[in-house]
Write a structure and sequence with these properties.
By secondary structure, this protein is mostly helical. It has helices spanning 2-14, 21-32, 34-42, 44-50, 55-63, 66-72, 76-85, 98-105. It contains eight helices and no strands. The N and C termini lie far apart (53 Å).
């Protein structure tokens, strides 16, 4: 019985339930497909609808808030693909990136 519980704990720690599967699938596809990334930049709503995102998932993507997304359970790689790559934040200087504004202002 103890071994079974240990297996459950390990599964929860290392293989958590993927709450936002469609969002993660879209992020990975955008990362791998340059044409899809361009389409996402032109019209993110069309791409989100094509992947069947729920309204909750769409709201997270629209927020462009990496901290909010991470706290909601979106994996870090998906946040990187959607915000830093697809939105082009990776090419901006740190002071223009949302995460750094508060730190630089204080």
């Amino acid at each position: 019985m103890l071994q079974w519980r240990l297996c459950e704990v390990m599964r929860e720690l290392f293989f958590p339930e993927l709450k936002y599967y469609r969002l993660h699938k879209m992020a990975r596809s955008i990362h791998l497909n340059a044409a899809l990334m361009q389409e996402y930049r032109r019209n993110p709503e069309t791409v989100m609808n094509a992947f069947g995102l729920t309204e909750e998932e769409k709201e997270l993507v629209r927020s462009k808030d990496p901290v909010r997304m991470f706290n909601a359970g979106v994996m870090a790689y998906a946040i990187f693909y959607l915000i830093w790559e697809a939105e082009g934040w990776i090419y901006r200087p740190p002071e223009e990136q949302t995460l750094y504004k508060e730190q630089l202002m204080s």
